[in-house]
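question for whoever is on the cluster today: can someone run the full assembly for these? two chains, 388 residues total. i dont have access anymore since they changed the login thing
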Amino acid sequence: MNQFIFDIAVMLDNTQWSTLLHESYYMYNWVESTHVLTLVLCLGMLFLIDLRMLGYAFPGVPASSIADRLNMPMLIGFIVMFITGILLFYAVPVRTSQSVWFRFKMVLLVAAAVNAFMFHKRMNESVSTWDNDAKAPSAVRMGAILSLTFWSIIVIFGRFIAYDWFDCEYTDAGSLSQLLSGCINGQAQF
Amino acid sequence: MSTAINSESNSYTKTITVAVLLALLLIFSFTSLRHETWLRLYEFFLWLETTPFGVIGKTWGAVFAVVEAVHLLAMALLGGAVIVSDARLLGWCFTEVPAGEIQDRAHKVFKIGLAVVLFTGVFMACGVAGKIYWLPVFWYKMLALATGIFFVFFIRRPMLKRDLDELNPRVVKLVAISSLLVWATVAATGRWIGFAGS
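^ ran it for u. tokens below:
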């Protein structure tokens, strides 16, 4: 599996667009800035929805109204964030695919997606009975707490990707770090 | 009658205060005062690196990285509050809810986000004070942040405490768009500090 991921990453790395994106100071930085700005949009909306369910934000506004209105900007932010995230990966595919933080982040993204699905399912099933309550029922609140936790850790791990603490070339062969990062041939190629 | 006169004189006082502040800002910007102040601040920035925040930030990279992430999360919270309250002013959402209700609730969230952004921002600045001092984009960010804070607490909030129906809808929309632009500039220039410093 690691060999397969590595081969794909090397193939992407060998394309001209990957090099151009990586080497272009302004283009790369604009893509990363857009990633961060849309993260503010997406997570800003997500936090307000979750905090509403917990009773900390807009308790006087119906929960379904908050969720319905903020879902669209949140999704728009997520889509742009996702596209720019793919571009950031494409610019530095080998190192990123062998980053332990990136791998954790991807697992947490899947967990956050499953939680979001469950959260909306639980909410839509029962919202009519508690829509105007300051706090949502405990099952929905748990989903909101999980969402806040997952996304906070996703942002922290996303920030950690920039640091080289556990890069393959700086860790011992056969170590746990190398195992989790799926290190193959060090990271001579970027 | 006396209330109307008081309110009118109060609004004149505010206008004159803003005009004086703008004049002072222009004098500061277009004279040697700006450069002299900048030179004097160098010692202060070097001192910042010796404070506990500066030492922690420089010594433990992981702590610095976590604080960076918390800064970003707080910026998301602040951004969310700004977007929702400005979108309400522009009539894009929650039009069935009184504008005052949305503004008051959003402002509470905004203040929490701003407090965390400022605290984590000061921490990060202490760790790299000697470097950011030389970056023009850092000063642009500080200018944008100061503008944003001034705008929120001295223009936007006082204006929104009044009955919105009394205000010109174009002015309300202009304030909402200005608010969105100012905070987007704060976020964008903040991110660019990282690029300029690397």
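summary bc i know u wont read the tokens: Chain B touches chain A through 33 residues (CB under 8 Å). Chain B has a mean pLDDT of 89.
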